From TrEMBL:
SMART domains attached to this UniProt entry: HTH_XRE
Source organism phylogeny: Bacteria, Bacillati, Actinomycetota, Actinomycetes, Kitasatosporales
Organism: Streptomyces roseolilacinus
Superkingdom to which the source organism belongs: Bacteria
GO molecular function: DNA binding
Entries under InterPro entries matching the protein: Cro/C1-type_HTH, DUF5753, Lambda_DNA-bd_dom_sf
UniProt-listed Pfam families: DUF5753, HTH_31
Protein name (Swiss-Prot/TrEMBL): Transcriptional regulator
Domain HTH cro/C1-type span(s) in chain numbering: 23-75
Length: 282
């Protein structure tokens, strides 16, 4: 498709696409460009374009702004909940915006303190974690969550984007709720991503001074045309941090973890050795 050529949207594909199709229709019927419609809001034309293509959710404040400019009597504000619910899928409500942002990220960096991050999990590992943390979920609900987690990892199928860096505490290489063979498969999966040059790992040794950060996982994401964000998470909650000062503080903390961790090459050796130990029943 030639650059700048208008791409049609199939509003029948899903709820976000239907929402985006209606948004474009109303905008063009009013004779407004993307730039003109977002004028006076805190958002850019690229952001609105991604909403029209069904790729991004509409924030409530932007929906109210659009309704006011287009005179659509609260339509887009009322439909915001439907789109958020449709894009949430099997993800927890607090995590759905993060899963959506991963697809747009230029770079992702994570600190795994107590669990291997979701983007690196095998189905067996993900299933074990979900069964532990959501013990009352029905089998179909568990499998829907596993599928959603595996779908997130499809971003590693692209050649270079995103650049992914992960720091794992050494305890994550040790016995878990998985069998030895399953744990070997999990670690071999991570090693395979490293050998394909899709991720860069670092192992943080047991004796590192990391106590202040042991209680929370951290994720950072950088984008081409958006400010960076940080994300912290516990078993049943998550918080997106976008205030620049706080993101900077978390970044400094992450950099200290990185400085204390083993180099990537030595970390890969540790991961592969642990996998071999599991395979040999050690």
């Amino acid at each position: 498709m030639a650059r700048g050529q208008r791409k049609d949207i199939d509003g029948s594909e899903n709820v976000p696409s239907f929402y985006g199709t209606e948004l474009r229709f109303q905008r063009e019927a009013a004779g407004l460009t993307l730039e003109k419609l977002v004028e006076g809001s805190f958002y850019g034309a690229t952001y609105l374009s991604e909403i029209e293509r069904g790729q991004r959710r509409m924030p409530l404040d932007l929906a109210r702004h659009v309704d006011r400019v287009l005179g659509t009597d609260g339509f887009f504000e009322r439909r915001c909940h439907d789109v958020r619910k449709a894009k949430q899928g099997a993800h927890a409500a607090y995590f759905a915006p993060i899963a959506e942002s991963e697809v747009r990220a230029r770079a992702i960096e994570e600190w795994g303190n107590a669990l291997i991050p979701g983007l690196l999990q095998t189905p067996e590992y993900a299933r074990a974690v979900i069964n532990c943390t959501h013990g009352l979920d029905l089998p179909d609900e568990v499998e829907a969550k596993v599928r959603a987690r595996m779908k997130r990892a499809s971003l590693f199928e692209t050649p270079k984007k995103p650049e992914y860096w992960v720091i794992l505490h050494e305890s994550l290489l040790r016995p878990t709720v998985l069998s030895g063979a399953e744990m070997a498969e999990q670690l071999e999966h991570i090693a395979g991503l490293v050998r394909r040059r899709r991720i860069v790992p670092q192992i943080l040794p047991w004796n590192s001074e990391t106590q202040p950060f042991m209680t929370m996982a951290l994720k950072f994401m950088e984008f081409e045309d958006e400010p960076p964000i940080a994300y912290t998470e516990g078993p049943y909650h998550g918080q997106t941090v976008d205030e620049p000062g706080l993101v900077k503080l978390y970044r400094k903390a992450y950099d200290r973890l990185r400085a204390a961790a083993l180099p990537p090459g030595a970390s890969l050796v540790r991961i592969e050795q642990a996998a071999e130990d599991y395979r040999n029943g050690k």
